[in-house]
C-alpha cells in the first residue's frame, strides 16, 4: 500500500533578484526530433496553481513523482503514408504540419475507438497549433484535420497578453456504423504572471499562462435518427514556460471547480518505486440491464484513485441525476439507480462518467419508468 505524505508548498510573492521577464516564441516550443522527460506529480493537499503575478516566485521544489514518461516529437512524414498525405509539410497544404507526437488512445462515446493516436502540430513564427490527429478509428487508419485549427499559443507570448481561438473536428462514420461525432473547442490564454519557478529540476525564469478550455461534443446516431448535445466541459491548464524549454517546465490541470486532475513537470531520470502505469484509468464501464425496465446498475473499475462524476443526459441535452464530483479509490464501483424514483421517463439517454477530466459515455434505453 502506498503511503501518502502531506506536501506543504510555500509560494512566495516577492521580487527575485535573478528573475527577468522573458518572451516566448517559436524557438521555445517543440521541434521535430525533440525528446523530453516528464515526471507525473503526486496530487497532495497544499498545492495551489492559481497564485500568480508579475515578478512572482513559485516554489514547487517539493513535488514528488509517481511515475515518468518520455514525450518524443518526430517529423510528420515518419508517422504513416496515410497521415502524411493529409498533413504533409508543404506551404500549399492548409493542414500543414512539421511535427507529430504519439498520444493516448481514447474513445468518442461507446461507438468510436481511436488507437495508435498521433497529434500533428505546426510550429511557425506566428503560432504553435494543432492541425489535426491521425489514428486507427475502429481499426481503420484515418487522418482527422481540425477546422479551425487549435491555436495553442500565438507569438510572441508576453506578459500580460490575452488571446482566444476556436477549433473543432468531426468523425463521420455514418456510412459504416451510422455514427457522427463532433467536437467543438474554445481556448482562452491569459499570460497572468512572470518570474522565477523552482521545481525538482532547478530554478528558471518563466512566463505563466492560464488556459481555459471549453469543449462541447455532439453525437448523432443514424440508426435511431437521434442527435445528442453532450454537456459542456470546462477545464483549466496552468503552465509555466521557460526560454528554450520546448514544453512547459510545469503544468497543472484542473476541473472547472479547481480540483487538480494532473501535474506534469520536466525532470531528469528518477529511480522510482511503485510507478503507476500510465494508462486509461477507467475499465469495464457497464450498464445492466440495458434496455432498462426502470432500474439499472452502473458499474466500472478504477485503476487508481480518481475524481469521478456521473450524469444522465436526455436526447435534448437535459441533465438528470447529476452526482457531485468526488474522489473515489481504485477498484470496482457500482451504483444502482431507480429511474422511477427519479421521475425519469422512458426514452433514449446517455450516461456520462467523467474520470480525472476525461469523459466516457454509454447509451441507455429506458423502456419503463412507471
Distance between the termini: 46 Å
**What radius of gyration results from the CA coordinates?**
22 Å
Largest sheet: 15 strands, mixed
- Helix tally? 1
Strand-pairing-aware structural class: mainly beta
Rough outline? globular
Q: What order do the helices and strands follow?
A: EEEHEEEEEEEEEEEEEEEEEEEE
Amount of helix: under 10%
Q: Return the average pLDDT rounded to an integer.
A: 85
Unreliable runs: 1-17, 273-279
What fraction of residues sit in β-strands? over 45%
Q: How many beta-strand runs?
A: 23
Number of individual domains: 2
Please tell me about this protein's structure.
The protein is an all-beta fold and 370 residues long. It folds into 2 domains: 26-266, no CATH class; 282-366, Macroglobulin (MG2) domain (Immunoglobulin-like). Helix content is 2%, strand content 54%. It has one helix at 81-87; strands at 35-41, 56-59, 65-74, 99-102, 106-108, 112-123, 127-137, 140-154, 162-173, 179-199, 202-221, 226-229, 233-242, 250-255, 260-266, 282-288, 295-302, 306-314, 319-320, 326-328, 331-338, 347-355, 358-366. The strands form 3 sheets. It has a 15-stranded mixed sheet that branches. Strands 18, 19, 20, 22 and 23 form a 5-stranded antiparallel sheet that branches. A hairpin with a 2-residue loop joins strand 10 and strand 11 (202-221). It is globular. The protein starts with 34 loop residues before the first strand and ends with a strand.
Amino acid at each position: 500500500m502506498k503511503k501518502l505524505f502531506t506536501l506543504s508548498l510555500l509560494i512566495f510573492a516577492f521580487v527575485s533578484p535573478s528573475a527577468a521577464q522573458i518572451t516566448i516564441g517559436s524557438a521555445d516550443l517543440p521541434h521535430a526530433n525533440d525528446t523530453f522527460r516528464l515526471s507525473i506529480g503526486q496530487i497532495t493537499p497544499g498545492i495551489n496553481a492559481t497564485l500568480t503575478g508579475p515578478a512572482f516566485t513559485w516554489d514547487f521544489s517539493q513535488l514528488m513523482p509517481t511515475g515518468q514518461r518520455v514525450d518524443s516529437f518526430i517529423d510528420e512524414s515518419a508517422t504513416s503514408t496515410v497521415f502524411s498525405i493529409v498533413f504533409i509539410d508543404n506551404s500549399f497544404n492548409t493542414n500543414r504540419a512539421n511535427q507529430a507526437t504519439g498520444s493516448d488512445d481514447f474513445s468518442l462515446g461507446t461507438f468510436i475507438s481511436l488507437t495508435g493516436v498521433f497529434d500533428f502540430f505546426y510550429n511557425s513564427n506566428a503560432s504553435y497549433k494543432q492541425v489535426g490527429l491521425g489514428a486507427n478509428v475502429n481499426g481503420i487508419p484515418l487522418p482527422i484535420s481540425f477546422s479551425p485549427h487549435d491555436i495553442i499559443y500565438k507569438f510572441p507570448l508576453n506578459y500580460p497578453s490575452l488571446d482566444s481561438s476556436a477549433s473543432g473536428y468531426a468523425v463521420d462514420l455514418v456510412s459504416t456504423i451510422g455514427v457522427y461525432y463532433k467536437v467543438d473547442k474554445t481556448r482562452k490564454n491569459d499570460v497572468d504572471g512572470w518570474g522565477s519557478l523552482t521545481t525538482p529540476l532547478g530554478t528558471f525564469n518563466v512566463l505563466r499562462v492560464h488556459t481555459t478550455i471549453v469543449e462541447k461534443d455532439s453525437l448523432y446516431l443514424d440508426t435511431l435518427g437521434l442527435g445528442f448535445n453532450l454537456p459542456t466541459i470546462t477545464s483549466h491548464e496552468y503552465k509555466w514556460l521557460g526560454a528554450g524549454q520546448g514544453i512547459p517546465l510545469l503544468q497543472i490541470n484542473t476541473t472547472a471547480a479547481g480540483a487538480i486532475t494532473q501535474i506534469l513537470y520536466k525532470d531528469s531520470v528518477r529511480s522510482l518505486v511503485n510507478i503507476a502505469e500510465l494508462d486509461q484509468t477507467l475499465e469495464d464501464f457497464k450498464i445492466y440491464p440495458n434496455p432498462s425496465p426502470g432500474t439499472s446498475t452502473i458499474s466500472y473499475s478504477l485503476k487508481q484513485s480518481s475524481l469521478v462524476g456521473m450524469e444522465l443526459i436526455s436526447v435534448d441535452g437535459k441533465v438528470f441525476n447529476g452526482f457531485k464530483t468526488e474522489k473515489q479509490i481504485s477498484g470496482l464501483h457500482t451504483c444502482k439507480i431507480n429511474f422511477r424514483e427519479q421521475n425519469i421517463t422512458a426514452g433514449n439517454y446517455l450516461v456520462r462518467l467523467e474520470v480525472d477530466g476525461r469523459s466516457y459515455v454509454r447509451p441507455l434505453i429506458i423502456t419503463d419508468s412507471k
